Request: fold
Amino acid sequence: MDATEAWIDLRLWSESAFRTVSFTIAVVFGFHLLGTLRESFASLNTMIGFAAFAVVWITTLVATRAGHRHYRQRQTSSRYSASRLESTTVAGSLNGACVYAVLALAAALALHTPQAVAAIAVFSVLGVTVAAAIGGFVGIAYGASEACLLRVSRAIIDTDEPQPRVAAT
Amino acid sequence: MADVSYQLWFLVRYVHVAAAAVLAGGAMLTAAICGTAAGLDIGVLTSVASAYEWTFWSLVGIVAATGISNLGLKGEGLLGPDTSWGIALSVKLGAALFLLALSFVRSDIVARARSTSVIHDARVRRVLTAVYASTGFTLLGVLWLGLGLAHGRY
Reply:
C-alpha cells in the first residue's frame, strides 16, 4: 500500500455508507412488502439492532476499501484490466465473510461452552464460504447498479470533456 | 418491545428528527450558496459541497438506524403493506432508496469536480445547485411522510 495514501476519502466513505444504508433499507422494505416486518422486529431490541447496524457498516467500510485496492492494483497491472464489477464482487464476498465471522464470534462469546465453541468453529468453515458466496452475488448487484448511477453522473457532467476552444483572432 | 424506556424512545426519535433536519437544512443551504454566490471561487463551492457530503454520509446512517428503530418501537402498531399506513411506509422507503441513489450520483459529481483541473465553472454551479435543491426537496418530502406515519395521519 502506498504510504501516502489516505486511509479514507470521500468516495470510500460515501460508497460504504450508500451500500450499508441502501442494503438495510432494502431488507426492511422487503420484510414490509412480505407483511412480516412486525414478526421480524419482535426478536430484536434497540441495542442489538444498533450494534448489528454498526457491525455491518464497519465491515462494509473495510470491504469497500479492499475492493478499491483491488481495482487500483488491476489498473496498474499489465496482465489484467480493471473491472468495477469485479471489485464490488470482491468487496461483497469479503463483507459477507466478515459479517458471518462477527456473528459466529458473538455466538461463541454468548454461549462460551467448549462444545458450543467447537461446533461453531467447525460449522464456520462452511458458513464463511456460503456467506462469501452470497456476499459476492450482492456485490455483483451493487456493481451493476452503481455502474448505472455513475453513468448517469457522467451524463449530467463530464469533467474530462475538453474546454471550449477560444477562437484565435 | 414493551420493556422499552420512555427516555430511550424519546432519544431515538429526537436523534432521528434532528439528524434529518440537519440533512435537509444543509442541502437547502448548500443549494442556496451554489446558486447565489456568483462571485465565489469554484474551489470554495466544491469545498462547501464536500463538507456537506461528509456530513450527509455520516448522518444518513444514523437516520436509517434510528428510523428503523422507530419502526421497531411501534410494536403492534406496525400495519401491513395493504393498509393506507403501510402504503405510506412503502412510499417513504422507496423515496429513501431514491434519495440514496440521487446522493450517490451527487457525491460522484462533487468528488470529480474536486479532483480534476478541468472545471466548467458555470455548468458545475448549475448542476450543484440543482442536485442539492433536489436532495433538499426529497428530504423534506420524506420528512413530511415520516411525520404523517408517526402521528397516524394515514
About this structure: The first helix of chain A runs from residue 10 to 34. Residues 10-157 of chain A form one domain. Residues 163-169 of chain A have pLDDT under 50 and may be disordered.
